[in-house]
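Thread: Modeling a multi-component assembly for a lab meeting

Hi all, long-time lurker, first post. My supervisor asked me to bring a structural picture of a complex we are working on to next week's group meeting, and I have zero experience with this. I have the sequence lines for every component (301 residues in total). Could someone generate the structure of the whole assembly? Inputs are pasted exactly as I received them:
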Amino acid sequence: MKSAVIVFPGSNCDRDLSTALELVTGRKPEMVWHRETELPNAIDFIGVPGGFSYGDYLRSGAMAARSPIMRAVSDAAGRGVPVIGICNGFQVLTEAGLLPGALMRNAALKFVCREVPLRIENSQSLFTASYDAGEEIAFPVAHHDGNYQADEGTLDRLEGEGRVAFRYLDEVNGSARRIAGILNDSGNVLGLMPHPERVVEPAHGRTDGRRLFEGLLETVGA
Amino acid sequence: MKARVFITLKNGVLDPQGKAIHHALEGLGFSGVNDVRAGKLIELDLADGTADAAIEDMCRKLLANTVIENFRIERLEDA
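Re: Modeling a multi-component assembly
Sure thing. I ran the full set together rather than chain by chain. Output:
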C-alpha cells in the first residue's frame, strides 16, 4: 500500500502518522507539501494529519482546505482513493466539503487532551474492518475544536446510512450525538477527532489504533 | 473602496464563546443581558468597482463557513 501524508504549515502529527503507516504497511509514506498540485503516482491511501495548520486562522482547517494540494486530494477521493483526516485533518476535510458538518469550539471551551473511550458503530467500512461492531476501544484526543455539529437532517442521514464510524462513550467536547468520526457517502473518506496513530505500539500503552491501519491495509491490499 | 464582512453564527448553532462572554458579563455584575453571540468582522480593501457578487463569492468560498455561519456585506465607500 503506497500512502501519502499531506503536510501543511503547522501540521504536527504528520510524522506520527507516517511512522504508524510505515510500521503497519512496511512502506514509508510520501510526505506531500501543501503547495504541490499533484499527488505522487499510484497512491493507494491519503492521510491528512493533525496539528494547527495555518495557526487555526479564520477557522480550524479553513486555510488548509484551500491549499493547492487539496484539489488533488478531492479528485483522488472522488476516484475512490481512501482518505483519512485525523483531528485537524478532520477539520480540513469538512472545510473542503469532503465531509458534512463542521467542527466547532469545544462546548466547555477547554482544550481536551486525554484518552477517551470510543464505540465502533460501523465495522463494515474500509477503515474499521478489523474491529467488531459495538466494540469499545480507546484513542487519545487532543483538540480545542472537536465539537461536531451538523443540522438534524444531516445527523439523521449519517446515522441512518451507517456513516457514524466512531462515537464517544462519554461527553468529551459537546459533539452532536457524541459523534467522534464520520464517513462520506461512498465510505472512502473518514474524518475523526481522536488519534489512532498515537496508539500503535505497546509502548504507547495500547495498540487500538494499529488495527485501523491493519484493517485498511487488508481491505486496500498490499 | 472598502467593505466590511460581518460573520455570525446561524441561529440555533451553539456558541460556546458567546456563552462564556455572557457568564463573564454576569460575573462583573451586568444584569439584563439576555444572550451573547460572538462573530467576526473582516475588513477588505478592494479595487474600486469590485462587484457585490465577487465579495459574496469570497464569503462563500473562504470567509464564512456557510454550514454554520451567515455573512453580511457592508460597502463603506465607493469610488
